[in-house]
Amino acid sequence: MLLNRYKLHLTLCCLCLTLPLQAAESPIEVSGFGRIVGGFLDNPELSYQGYQDELSFDSQSLAALQIDWHAMPKVTVTTQLLAHSDSNRNSGIEWLYLTYDVNEQWQIRVGKQRTPFFRYSDVQNVGFAYHWVTPPQQLYNGVLFPTYDGLNIKYRIGTQDIQFSLEGYFGEYNDEYEIANLTIQPEIKNFAGLIGHVKWDYLSAQIGFHRGDINLFMDELNGLAAILQQAGYQDTADSLSTKGRVEVLFASLAYHNMDYFVEAEIIKLLSEPLVFPTLSSAYISAGLYLPPFTLHSTVATSHASYPQPVNEIPMGLAPQVDQLAMAYRQVYAALEKDSLGSFAVGVRYDLSENFALKADITRLRGRRDERSFFDITHHESGRAATLYQFSLEWVF
Amino acid sequence: MRLLHLFMASILMIPVFFTLQAQQDEHIIVITQLDTQLNNVNKTMLRNLYMGNLGLGDITPIALAPGELARSVFNVRVVGLTESRIQAYWAQMRFSGRKQRPIEASDPAEAILMVQSTVNTIAYVPAGTVLPKDVKIIFTSQTPQ
After folding, report:
1. Closest partner residue to B85 among A156, A289, A353, by Cβ?
2. Which of A123, A155, A293 to mutate to test the interface with B (most CBs of B within 10 A)?
3. What is the pTM of this model?
4. Residues spanned by the domain of B118
5. If interface means Cβ-Cβ distance under 8 Å, which residues of chain B face chain A?
6. 10 Å Cβ neighbour count for A17?
7. In whole angstroms, what is the distance from residue A205 CA to residue A194 CA?
8. What is the ipTM of this complex?
9. Which tens digits make up the pLDDT trace of A210-228?
10. Which of A62, A185, A354, B16 has the greatest number of C-beta atoms within 10 Å?
Protein backbone atom coordinates (compact mmCIF):
# COMPACT_ATOMS: atom_id res chain seq x y z
CA MET A 1 0.00 0.00 0.00
CA LEU A 2 1.58 3.29 -1.09
CA LEU A 3 0.02 5.49 1.51
CA ASN A 4 -1.95 4.93 4.61
CA ARG A 5 -5.43 4.85 3.15
CA TYR A 6 -7.13 6.61 6.01
CA LYS A 7 -4.73 9.52 6.06
CA LEU A 8 -4.86 9.90 2.32
CA HIS A 9 -8.65 9.96 2.34
CA LEU A 10 -8.61 12.56 5.09
CA THR A 11 -6.29 14.75 3.06
CA LEU A 12 -8.32 14.37 -0.09
CA CYS A 13 -11.55 15.16 1.77
CA CYS A 14 -9.98 18.34 3.10
CA LEU A 15 -8.91 19.21 -0.42
CA CYS A 16 -12.38 18.64 -1.87
CA LEU A 17 -13.99 20.72 0.87
CA THR A 18 -11.65 23.64 0.39
CA LEU A 19 -11.43 23.79 -3.41
CA PRO A 20 -14.83 25.46 -3.87
CA LEU A 21 -13.69 28.17 -1.47
CA GLN A 22 -10.68 28.82 -3.60
CA ALA A 23 -12.66 28.84 -6.80
CA ALA A 24 -14.92 31.55 -5.45
CA GLU A 25 -11.85 33.80 -4.91
CA SER A 26 -12.36 33.75 -1.17
CA PRO A 27 -9.48 34.83 1.08
CA ILE A 28 -8.56 31.18 1.45
CA GLU A 29 -5.76 29.74 -0.66
CA VAL A 30 -5.21 26.03 -0.88
CA SER A 31 -2.00 24.52 -2.11
CA GLY A 32 -0.27 21.25 -1.51
CA PHE A 33 2.49 18.89 -2.33
CA GLY A 34 3.19 15.22 -2.33
CA ARG A 35 5.69 12.58 -3.18
CA ILE A 36 5.79 8.89 -3.88
CA VAL A 37 9.25 7.62 -3.08
CA GLY A 38 10.46 4.12 -3.79
CA GLY A 39 13.80 2.61 -3.00
CA PHE A 40 15.85 -0.34 -1.91
CA LEU A 41 19.21 -1.08 -0.35
CA ASP A 42 21.59 -3.62 -1.85
CA ASN A 43 22.83 -4.98 1.51
CA PRO A 44 20.49 -7.57 3.11
CA GLU A 45 22.12 -7.16 6.53
CA LEU A 46 21.39 -3.46 6.84
CA SER A 47 18.48 -1.10 6.79
CA TYR A 48 18.81 2.61 6.05
CA GLN A 49 15.98 5.16 6.54
CA GLY A 50 13.56 2.24 6.43
CA TYR A 51 14.93 0.88 3.14
CA GLN A 52 15.95 -2.77 3.01
CA ASP A 53 16.89 -5.18 0.26
CA GLU A 54 13.41 -5.18 -1.24
CA LEU A 55 11.56 -2.40 -3.00
CA SER A 56 9.63 -0.23 -0.58
CA PHE A 57 7.39 2.81 -0.96
CA ASP A 58 6.52 3.23 2.71
CA SER A 59 9.48 5.12 4.06
CA GLN A 60 9.19 8.64 2.65
CA SER A 61 5.99 8.94 0.62
CA LEU A 62 3.66 11.65 1.84
CA ALA A 63 0.89 14.06 0.91
CA ALA A 64 0.25 17.50 2.36
CA LEU A 65 -2.23 20.28 2.16
CA GLN A 66 -1.47 23.91 3.01
CA ILE A 67 -4.27 26.34 3.71
CA ASP A 68 -3.57 30.07 3.86
CA TRP A 69 -6.39 32.20 5.19
CA HIS A 70 -5.85 35.89 4.50
CA ALA A 71 -7.83 37.02 7.51
CA MET A 72 -6.91 40.70 7.08
CA PRO A 73 -4.83 42.60 4.51
CA LYS A 74 -1.58 42.00 6.41
CA VAL A 75 -2.54 38.98 8.45
CA THR A 76 -2.49 35.39 7.21
CA VAL A 77 -3.20 32.19 9.11
CA THR A 78 -1.39 29.18 7.66
CA THR A 79 -1.82 25.53 8.44
CA GLN A 80 -0.16 22.54 6.88
CA LEU A 81 -1.67 19.07 7.22
CA LEU A 82 0.69 16.23 6.51
CA ALA A 83 0.03 12.51 5.98
CA HIS A 84 3.12 10.29 6.06
CA SER A 85 3.14 6.79 4.62
CA ASP A 86 5.53 5.78 7.42
CA SER A 87 3.42 5.01 10.49
CA ASN A 88 6.43 5.78 12.73
CA ARG A 89 6.30 9.43 11.68
CA ASN A 90 3.69 11.77 13.04
CA SER A 91 0.92 12.74 10.66
CA GLY A 92 -1.39 15.64 11.34
CA ILE A 93 -0.85 19.36 11.76
CA GLU A 94 2.72 20.12 10.74
CA TRP A 95 2.35 23.91 10.96
CA LEU A 96 -0.19 26.29 12.40
CA TYR A 97 0.92 29.89 12.56
CA LEU A 98 -0.16 33.45 12.07
CA THR A 99 1.86 35.79 9.86
CA TYR A 100 1.79 39.56 10.20
CA ASP A 101 3.48 41.29 7.26
CA VAL A 102 4.24 44.62 8.90
CA ASN A 103 5.67 46.00 5.68
CA GLU A 104 8.01 44.84 2.91
CA GLN A 105 10.91 44.70 5.37
CA TRP A 106 9.39 43.15 8.49
CA GLN A 107 7.49 39.89 8.93
CA ILE A 108 6.31 38.42 12.25
CA ARG A 109 5.09 34.84 12.67
CA VAL A 110 3.57 33.27 15.77
CA GLY A 111 2.60 29.62 16.28
CA LYS A 112 3.83 26.14 15.45
CA GLN A 113 6.43 26.47 12.73
CA ARG A 114 9.21 24.52 11.08
CA THR A 115 12.64 25.11 12.64
CA PRO A 116 14.85 26.82 10.04
CA PHE A 117 18.02 24.89 10.90
CA PHE A 118 19.39 24.38 7.41
CA ARG A 119 18.94 25.57 3.85
CA TYR A 120 16.11 23.12 3.09
CA SER A 121 14.84 22.43 6.63
CA ASP A 122 11.53 24.20 6.21
CA VAL A 123 10.80 22.44 2.90
CA GLN A 124 12.34 19.08 3.71
CA ASN A 125 9.02 17.37 2.97
CA VAL A 126 8.59 19.24 -0.32
CA GLY A 127 10.68 17.10 -2.63
CA PHE A 128 9.78 19.31 -5.59
CA ALA A 129 11.85 22.14 -4.03
CA TYR A 130 15.24 20.42 -4.30
CA HIS A 131 17.16 18.21 -6.69
CA TRP A 132 17.78 15.05 -4.62
CA VAL A 133 15.26 12.33 -3.79
CA THR A 134 16.50 12.69 -0.20
CA PRO A 135 18.72 15.52 1.08
CA PRO A 136 22.00 14.29 2.64
CA GLN A 137 21.11 12.45 5.86
CA GLN A 138 24.30 13.58 7.52
CA LEU A 139 22.49 16.92 7.99
CA TYR A 140 18.80 16.26 7.30
CA ASN A 141 18.49 13.28 9.65
CA GLY A 142 15.98 14.46 12.22
CA VAL A 143 18.46 14.53 15.12
CA LEU A 144 17.31 18.09 15.67
CA PHE A 145 13.83 19.30 16.50
CA PRO A 146 11.77 19.74 13.34
CA THR A 147 9.23 22.26 14.63
CA TYR A 148 8.81 24.72 17.47
CA ASP A 149 6.05 26.76 19.07
CA GLY A 150 7.01 30.37 19.25
CA LEU A 151 7.78 33.68 17.61
CA ASN A 152 9.74 34.30 14.42
CA ILE A 153 10.75 37.78 13.27
CA LYS A 154 12.30 38.42 9.89
CA TYR A 155 13.83 41.60 8.58
CA ARG A 156 15.03 42.06 5.04
CA ILE A 157 16.60 44.87 3.09
CA GLY A 158 17.72 44.99 -0.48
CA THR A 159 19.32 47.11 -3.12
CA GLN A 160 19.55 46.44 -6.81
CA ASP A 161 22.70 44.41 -6.29
CA ILE A 162 22.45 42.75 -2.91
CA GLN A 163 19.68 41.28 -0.75
CA PHE A 164 20.07 40.72 2.94
CA SER A 165 17.79 39.17 5.56
CA LEU A 166 18.06 38.48 9.25
CA GLU A 167 15.70 36.02 10.94
CA GLY A 168 15.40 35.41 14.64
CA TYR A 169 13.14 33.00 16.49
CA PHE A 170 12.33 32.09 20.06
CA GLY A 171 10.12 29.31 21.35
CA GLU A 172 9.89 25.85 22.82
CA TYR A 173 9.48 22.25 21.79
CA ASN A 174 7.53 19.63 23.76
CA ASP A 175 6.57 17.00 21.20
CA GLU A 176 7.64 13.38 21.15
CA TYR A 177 11.10 12.86 19.83
CA GLU A 178 13.32 9.92 18.93
CA ILE A 179 16.96 9.82 19.93
CA ALA A 180 19.42 6.97 20.59
CA ASN A 181 16.68 4.48 19.65
CA LEU A 182 14.40 5.87 22.38
CA THR A 183 11.17 7.78 21.99
CA ILE A 184 11.09 10.51 24.61
CA GLN A 185 9.21 13.71 25.24
CA PRO A 186 11.86 16.30 26.02
CA GLU A 187 11.22 19.80 27.26
CA ILE A 188 13.18 22.44 25.40
CA LYS A 189 13.11 25.93 26.82
CA ASN A 190 14.76 29.06 25.47
CA PHE A 191 14.87 27.51 22.04
CA ALA A 192 16.23 30.34 19.87
CA GLY A 193 18.14 31.03 16.72
CA LEU A 194 19.49 33.74 14.48
CA ILE A 195 19.96 33.27 10.75
CA GLY A 196 21.59 35.71 8.34
CA HIS A 197 21.14 35.41 4.60
CA VAL A 198 22.92 37.34 1.84
CA LYS A 199 22.14 37.07 -1.85
CA TRP A 200 24.24 38.67 -4.54
CA ASP A 201 23.46 37.93 -8.16
CA TYR A 202 23.43 34.12 -8.43
CA LEU A 203 25.38 33.61 -5.23
CA SER A 204 23.76 33.19 -1.81
CA ALA A 205 25.24 32.58 1.62
CA GLN A 206 23.63 31.75 4.93
CA ILE A 207 24.92 31.46 8.46
CA GLY A 208 22.94 30.46 11.53
CA PHE A 209 23.22 29.86 15.23
CA HIS A 210 20.62 27.85 17.18
CA ARG A 211 20.48 26.95 20.85
CA GLY A 212 18.15 25.44 23.42
CA ASP A 213 18.04 24.33 27.05
CA ILE A 214 16.90 20.75 27.03
CA ASN A 215 15.57 18.41 29.69
CA LEU A 216 15.27 14.85 28.40
CA PHE A 217 13.38 13.29 31.36
CA MET A 218 15.23 9.96 30.98
CA ASP A 219 14.28 8.30 34.26
CA GLU A 220 16.66 5.34 34.07
CA LEU A 221 19.65 7.54 33.37
CA ASN A 222 18.65 10.00 36.08
CA GLY A 223 18.19 7.06 38.51
CA LEU A 224 21.68 5.75 37.80
CA ALA A 225 23.11 9.27 38.19
CA ALA A 226 21.35 9.61 41.58
CA ILE A 227 22.85 6.32 42.82
CA LEU A 228 26.33 7.34 41.64
CA GLN A 229 25.93 10.67 43.39
CA GLN A 230 24.88 8.98 46.64
CA ALA A 231 27.88 6.67 46.36
CA GLY A 232 30.13 9.74 46.18
CA TYR A 233 31.04 9.58 42.51
CA GLN A 234 29.96 13.11 41.67
CA ASP A 235 31.94 13.58 38.41
CA THR A 236 30.63 10.25 37.11
CA ALA A 237 27.06 11.21 38.02
CA ASP A 238 27.47 14.63 36.34
CA SER A 239 28.69 12.99 33.12
CA LEU A 240 25.26 11.30 32.74
CA SER A 241 23.52 14.63 32.51
CA THR A 242 20.14 14.64 30.79
CA LYS A 243 19.78 18.40 31.11
CA GLY A 244 21.79 21.13 29.46
CA ARG A 245 22.40 23.28 26.46
CA VAL A 246 22.38 22.18 22.81
CA GLU A 247 23.98 24.50 20.24
CA VAL A 248 24.10 24.30 16.46
CA LEU A 249 26.30 26.35 14.17
CA PHE A 250 25.47 26.32 10.49
CA ALA A 251 26.79 27.86 7.24
CA SER A 252 25.85 27.40 3.61
CA LEU A 253 26.93 28.71 0.24
CA ALA A 254 25.11 28.28 -3.07
CA TYR A 255 25.55 29.37 -6.65
CA HIS A 256 22.84 28.75 -9.23
CA ASN A 257 22.92 30.05 -12.78
CA MET A 258 21.36 29.09 -16.08
CA ASP A 259 23.69 26.18 -16.74
CA TYR A 260 24.89 24.76 -13.44
CA PHE A 261 24.82 25.00 -9.65
CA VAL A 262 27.04 24.33 -6.67
CA GLU A 263 25.77 24.12 -3.06
CA ALA A 264 27.51 23.37 0.20
CA GLU A 265 26.35 23.25 3.83
CA ILE A 266 28.24 22.60 7.03
CA ILE A 267 27.02 22.19 10.63
CA LYS A 268 28.51 21.68 14.05
CA LEU A 269 26.31 20.35 16.88
CA LEU A 270 27.55 20.77 20.45
CA SER A 271 25.64 19.54 23.47
CA GLU A 272 25.82 19.13 27.22
CA PRO A 273 23.34 16.22 27.65
CA LEU A 274 25.17 12.94 27.15
CA VAL A 275 22.84 11.36 24.64
CA PHE A 276 23.35 14.11 22.04
CA PRO A 277 26.59 13.49 20.15
CA THR A 278 29.00 16.20 19.13
CA LEU A 279 28.34 16.12 15.41
CA SER A 280 30.12 17.72 12.45
CA SER A 281 28.45 17.27 9.07
CA ALA A 282 28.89 18.74 5.62
CA TYR A 283 28.06 18.20 2.00
CA ILE A 284 28.89 19.69 -1.37
CA SER A 285 26.59 19.18 -4.30
CA ALA A 286 27.00 20.25 -7.93
CA GLY A 287 24.84 19.83 -10.96
CA LEU A 288 24.10 20.72 -14.54
CA TYR A 289 20.82 22.13 -15.84
CA LEU A 290 20.00 20.48 -19.14
CA PRO A 291 16.25 21.24 -19.37
CA PRO A 292 14.16 19.30 -18.70
CA PHE A 293 16.90 17.31 -16.94
CA THR A 294 19.06 18.22 -13.95
CA LEU A 295 22.08 16.01 -13.40
CA HIS A 296 23.81 16.19 -10.04
CA SER A 297 26.28 14.58 -7.70
CA THR A 298 26.84 15.04 -3.97
CA VAL A 299 29.56 14.17 -1.51
CA ALA A 300 28.57 14.23 2.16
CA THR A 301 30.19 13.34 5.44
CA SER A 302 29.47 13.30 9.16
CA HIS A 303 31.57 12.63 12.21
CA ALA A 304 29.94 11.92 15.58
CA SER A 305 31.60 11.58 18.96
CA TYR A 306 30.73 11.45 22.66
CA PRO A 307 32.85 12.49 25.64
CA GLN A 308 35.03 9.82 27.20
CA PRO A 309 33.53 8.11 30.30
CA VAL A 310 34.83 9.34 33.64
CA ASN A 311 37.29 6.86 35.15
CA GLU A 312 36.43 7.48 38.79
CA ILE A 313 34.97 4.21 40.09
CA PRO A 314 37.59 1.73 41.31
CA MET A 315 37.06 -1.90 40.28
CA GLY A 316 37.38 -4.81 42.72
CA LEU A 317 36.46 -2.95 45.88
CA ALA A 318 33.04 -4.49 46.34
CA PRO A 319 30.60 -6.35 44.06
CA GLN A 320 28.02 -3.55 44.34
CA VAL A 321 30.56 -0.95 43.23
CA ASP A 322 31.65 -3.16 40.35
CA GLN A 323 28.01 -3.47 39.27
CA LEU A 324 27.69 0.29 39.37
CA ALA A 325 30.80 0.70 37.23
CA MET A 326 29.46 -1.89 34.77
CA ALA A 327 26.10 -0.15 34.53
CA TYR A 328 27.87 3.17 33.90
CA ARG A 329 30.05 1.69 31.15
CA GLN A 330 27.02 0.03 29.54
CA VAL A 331 25.40 3.45 29.14
CA TYR A 332 28.41 4.66 27.14
CA ALA A 333 28.57 1.43 25.14
CA ALA A 334 24.92 1.91 24.12
CA LEU A 335 25.52 5.40 22.69
CA GLU A 336 25.26 5.10 18.94
CA LYS A 337 27.58 7.08 16.68
CA ASP A 338 26.54 8.17 13.22
CA SER A 339 29.69 8.85 11.23
CA LEU A 340 28.99 8.30 7.56
CA GLY A 341 30.48 9.17 4.19
CA SER A 342 28.39 9.12 1.04
CA PHE A 343 28.60 9.80 -2.66
CA ALA A 344 25.42 10.25 -4.68
CA VAL A 345 24.57 10.78 -8.32
CA GLY A 346 21.10 11.63 -9.48
CA VAL A 347 18.85 12.98 -12.15
CA ARG A 348 15.72 15.10 -11.98
CA TYR A 349 13.32 15.20 -14.89
CA ASP A 350 10.75 18.01 -14.86
CA LEU A 351 7.64 16.60 -16.43
CA SER A 352 5.72 19.86 -16.19
CA GLU A 353 5.53 22.95 -14.00
CA ASN A 354 4.01 20.83 -11.20
CA PHE A 355 5.50 17.37 -11.59
CA ALA A 356 9.02 16.00 -11.47
CA LEU A 357 10.57 12.55 -11.59
CA LYS A 358 13.82 11.90 -9.76
CA ALA A 359 16.27 9.04 -9.36
CA ASP A 360 19.32 8.88 -7.07
CA ILE A 361 22.00 6.27 -6.44
CA THR A 362 23.86 6.78 -3.17
CA ARG A 363 26.90 4.85 -2.03
CA LEU A 364 27.01 4.83 1.78
CA ARG A 365 30.11 3.96 3.75
CA GLY A 366 30.01 4.03 7.54
CA ARG A 367 32.46 2.97 10.22
CA ARG A 368 32.46 -0.68 11.24
CA ASP A 369 32.28 0.05 14.98
CA GLU A 370 29.48 2.62 14.65
CA ARG A 371 25.81 2.69 13.70
CA SER A 372 26.40 5.20 10.85
CA PHE A 373 22.64 5.91 10.44
CA PHE A 374 22.02 2.22 9.60
CA ASP A 375 19.69 -0.15 11.39
CA ILE A 376 21.85 -3.19 11.76
CA THR A 377 20.40 -6.69 11.73
CA HIS A 378 23.77 -8.49 11.98
CA HIS A 379 26.21 -6.73 14.25
CA GLU A 380 29.25 -8.15 12.48
CA SER A 381 28.15 -6.94 9.07
CA GLY A 382 29.98 -4.12 7.31
CA ARG A 383 28.59 -0.61 7.21
CA ALA A 384 28.54 -0.14 3.45
CA ALA A 385 25.63 -0.24 1.04
CA THR A 386 24.20 1.33 -2.07
CA LEU A 387 20.79 2.97 -1.87
CA TYR A 388 18.66 3.19 -5.02
CA GLN A 389 15.78 5.66 -4.89
CA PHE A 390 13.29 7.15 -7.31
CA SER A 391 10.37 9.48 -6.78
CA LEU A 392 7.46 11.30 -8.29
CA GLU A 393 7.10 14.80 -6.82
CA TRP A 394 4.27 17.22 -7.25
CA VAL A 395 3.00 20.57 -6.05
CA PHE A 396 -0.30 22.29 -6.73
CA MET B 1 9.55 -3.99 -27.00
CA ARG B 2 8.29 -1.56 -29.63
CA LEU B 3 5.46 -0.55 -27.34
CA LEU B 4 7.96 0.06 -24.56
CA HIS B 5 10.00 2.31 -26.85
CA LEU B 6 6.87 4.21 -27.85
CA PHE B 7 5.92 4.60 -24.19
CA MET B 8 9.35 5.92 -23.27
CA ALA B 9 9.33 8.31 -26.21
CA SER B 10 5.89 9.64 -25.27
CA ILE B 11 6.99 10.17 -21.65
CA LEU B 12 10.00 12.15 -22.81
CA MET B 13 7.78 14.31 -25.04
CA ILE B 14 5.48 15.40 -22.20
CA PRO B 15 7.29 18.52 -20.98
CA VAL B 16 6.66 20.48 -24.15
CA PHE B 17 6.75 23.79 -22.32
CA PHE B 18 10.22 23.08 -21.01
CA THR B 19 11.54 22.55 -24.49
CA LEU B 20 10.36 25.98 -25.53
CA GLN B 21 13.88 27.27 -25.51
CA ALA B 22 14.34 30.95 -26.06
CA GLN B 23 15.41 31.26 -29.65
CA GLN B 24 18.14 33.60 -30.71
CA ASP B 25 15.77 36.02 -32.41
CA GLU B 26 13.06 36.05 -29.71
CA HIS B 27 12.88 39.05 -27.39
CA ILE B 28 10.53 40.57 -24.85
CA ILE B 29 9.55 44.05 -23.78
CA VAL B 30 8.46 45.10 -20.30
CA ILE B 31 5.48 47.42 -20.09
CA THR B 32 3.61 49.50 -17.56
CA GLN B 33 0.85 52.09 -17.43
CA LEU B 34 1.64 55.62 -18.62
CA ASP B 35 0.70 56.85 -15.11
CA THR B 36 3.28 54.66 -13.35
CA GLN B 37 6.25 56.70 -12.14
CA LEU B 38 8.76 54.33 -13.65
CA ASN B 39 10.39 55.05 -16.98
CA ASN B 40 13.07 52.43 -17.29
CA VAL B 41 14.34 49.41 -15.45
CA ASN B 42 17.37 47.19 -15.92
CA LYS B 43 17.82 43.44 -15.91
CA THR B 44 18.91 43.25 -12.24
CA MET B 45 15.89 45.24 -11.08
CA LEU B 46 13.58 42.95 -13.05
CA ARG B 47 15.24 39.80 -11.75
CA ASN B 48 14.86 41.04 -8.17
CA LEU B 49 11.24 41.95 -8.71
CA TYR B 50 10.24 38.68 -10.37
CA MET B 51 12.12 36.59 -7.78
CA GLY B 52 10.36 38.32 -4.87
CA ASN B 53 13.36 40.40 -3.76
CA LEU B 54 13.32 44.02 -2.69
CA GLY B 55 14.48 46.99 -4.71
CA LEU B 56 11.60 48.38 -6.77
CA GLY B 57 9.25 49.74 -4.12
CA ASP B 58 5.54 49.23 -4.68
CA ILE B 59 5.70 47.78 -8.17
CA THR B 60 3.69 44.57 -8.70
CA PRO B 61 5.06 42.15 -11.32
CA ILE B 62 2.81 40.13 -13.62
CA ALA B 63 4.26 36.98 -15.16
CA LEU B 64 2.97 34.92 -18.06
CA ALA B 65 1.76 31.37 -17.48
CA PRO B 66 4.18 28.48 -18.05
CA GLY B 67 4.08 27.39 -21.67
CA GLU B 68 4.07 30.93 -23.07
CA LEU B 69 7.13 31.42 -25.27
CA ALA B 70 7.69 34.94 -23.88
CA ARG B 71 8.00 33.42 -20.40
CA SER B 72 10.83 31.17 -21.54
CA VAL B 73 12.50 34.14 -23.26
CA PHE B 74 12.14 36.23 -20.07
CA ASN B 75 13.52 33.43 -17.89
CA VAL B 76 16.56 32.98 -20.12
CA ARG B 77 17.31 36.59 -21.02
CA VAL B 78 16.36 38.39 -17.80
CA VAL B 79 16.09 36.05 -14.81
CA GLY B 80 18.90 33.78 -15.98
CA LEU B 81 17.43 30.59 -14.53
CA THR B 82 15.73 27.59 -16.06
CA GLU B 83 11.97 27.12 -15.72
CA SER B 84 12.50 24.06 -13.50
CA ARG B 85 14.80 26.00 -11.17
CA ILE B 86 12.25 28.83 -10.95
CA GLN B 87 9.44 26.41 -10.17
CA ALA B 88 11.54 24.72 -7.47
CA TYR B 89 12.45 28.13 -6.02
CA TRP B 90 8.79 29.18 -5.77
CA ALA B 91 7.82 25.84 -4.22
CA GLN B 92 10.46 26.51 -1.57
CA MET B 93 9.22 30.06 -0.98
CA ARG B 94 5.53 29.13 -0.90
CA PHE B 95 5.81 26.18 1.45
CA SER B 96 8.14 27.99 3.81
CA GLY B 97 5.76 30.95 3.98
CA ARG B 98 8.39 33.44 2.83
CA LYS B 99 7.33 35.00 -0.46
CA GLN B 100 4.44 34.95 -2.89
CA ARG B 101 5.13 34.20 -6.55
CA PRO B 102 4.09 36.86 -9.11
CA ILE B 103 0.53 36.76 -10.28
CA GLU B 104 0.18 35.20 -13.72
CA ALA B 105 -1.63 36.21 -16.88
CA SER B 106 -2.73 33.43 -19.20
CA ASP B 107 -1.39 35.22 -22.30
CA PRO B 108 0.11 38.57 -23.40
CA ALA B 109 -3.32 40.08 -24.14
CA GLU B 110 -4.46 39.44 -20.57
CA ALA B 111 -1.16 40.79 -19.23
CA ILE B 112 -1.73 44.05 -21.13
CA LEU B 113 -5.28 44.32 -19.80
CA MET B 114 -4.03 43.79 -16.23
CA VAL B 115 -1.38 46.50 -16.64
CA GLN B 116 -3.94 48.89 -18.14
CA SER B 117 -6.35 48.35 -15.26
CA THR B 118 -3.93 48.75 -12.34
CA VAL B 119 -1.32 51.41 -11.73
CA ASN B 120 2.18 50.34 -10.58
CA THR B 121 2.01 46.96 -12.28
CA ILE B 122 4.48 45.75 -14.88
CA ALA B 123 4.39 42.81 -17.28
CA TYR B 124 6.49 41.35 -20.04
CA VAL B 125 5.12 40.55 -23.49
CA PRO B 126 6.77 39.48 -26.76
CA ALA B 127 8.74 42.22 -28.55
CA GLY B 128 6.67 43.56 -31.41
CA THR B 129 3.34 43.21 -29.60
CA VAL B 130 0.98 46.02 -30.58
CA LEU B 131 0.38 48.11 -27.46
CA PRO B 132 -2.51 50.38 -26.53
CA LYS B 133 -1.77 54.10 -26.14
CA ASP B 134 -1.96 54.14 -22.33
CA VAL B 135 0.91 51.63 -21.95
CA LYS B 136 4.62 52.42 -22.20
CA ILE B 137 7.73 50.30 -22.68
CA ILE B 138 10.29 50.47 -19.86
CA PHE B 139 12.64 47.68 -20.89
CA THR B 140 13.54 45.74 -23.97
CA SER B 141 15.73 42.66 -24.00
CA GLN B 142 17.18 43.71 -27.38
CA THR B 143 19.06 46.59 -25.74
CA PRO B 144 22.37 45.44 -24.22
CA GLN B 145 22.30 45.94 -20.43
Report:
1. A289
2. A123
3. 0.85
4. 28-140
5. 14-15, 17-19, 21, 42, 44-45, 48, 53-55, 66, 76, 80-85, 87-89, 91-92, 94-98
6. 10
7. 14
8. 0.81
9. 999 988 888 888 888 889 8
10. A62
